[in-house]
Design a protein that fits this description.
The chain is built from ten helices and twelve strands. It is of the alpha/beta class. Helix 5 runs antiparallel to helix 10. The protein folds into three domains: about 80 residues, Orthogonal Bundle (Arc Repressor Mutant, subunit A); about 110 residues, Periplasmic binding protein-like II (D-Maltodextrin-Binding Protein, domain 2, 3-Layer(aba) Sandwich); about 90 residues, Periplasmic binding protein-like II (D-Maltodextrin-Binding Protein, domain 2, 3-Layer(aba) Sandwich). Helix content is about 45%, strand content about 20%. The strands form four sheets. It has a five-stranded mixed β-sheet with strand order 4-3-5-12-6. Strands 10-7-11 form a three-stranded antiparallel β-sheet. This is LysR family transcriptional regulator. Keywords: DNA-binding, Transcription, Transcription regulation. InterPro entries: LysR_HTH_N, LysR_subst-bd, WH-like_DNA-bd_sf, WH_DNA-bd_sf. Belongs to the LysR transcriptional regulatory family.
Amino acid sequence: MNTKQMDYVIEVAQTLNFNRAAENLFISQPALSYQIKTVEEEIGFLIFERIGKTVRLTPAGQQFYQQLINIRQQLQLAIEQGQNFSNQYSENLTIGFDLRSHLYFLPEVIKEFRELQPEVLITPEISQKDWLTAFREGEVDIIFTTRDQAEKLPNASIHPLYTSYIYLLVNPDDPLAQLKKARPKDLLGRTLLVNGGSTQTLRRVQKSVLEEVKLSTLNSPTHDFTMVSVAAEQAICLSPGYLKDFSDEFRWVPFETEESFDCVLVTQKFDQRHSLSDFVLLMQDIYQEKAQEFQL
């Protein structure tokens, strides 16, 4: 099956109409039907059921279509990345982040780095995936994480980035938003978001607060759930500063605790490329400065 045939299957699956799909693909309807039949013969099962003028995906066809979408996207990405390198880049550095907020200062780093090494492409990958596993398997060159997580990785070089502190995350209209520094006693009578994706450090702080002050709690399964709950004034949250969203939608009030997070970059110990070490040094310079300026 070639890429054109992939596109034919995807278009018919999305329109469930051979005539419309043929028009969208700029080919004749008989030619499209022939190509779909050829694919079905090659893979050994029917993708579509044809009942009169009605077309629908078979159960096997539905699964095949979903996988085909992913394959086609990955193939297109590979082609585009290859075109990038053939046109202007000789090297690529990939860096993995959990959340888009971690990338807030990255454009400034890339801009300065490009002036130093214009032949090197920086590719940020943003996803709430298991970046430790991705790093172990060599999917990325650099990951942003905390020191306690980085120390779990074998054969890794750990590069200090900045220290991040803990903040009380509240709605701007909340009276707590006016505090210069929040203390456990200030949270009395509130509902605190806990658990979910909280790190061990944050769980210790949550536990300490709950031992000191009587609070209701609400388990937060995801970062998005946390942000929506705070915006809806359903609960408040303790959060590391490295998760700041840099918007006016929330107030990040410094919280009184001795706990903090050592944010680091991690690279493979065997990767001794000069471009990599230069990029890490530039990241350290800029992020350390910004961490102080923006109180991360």
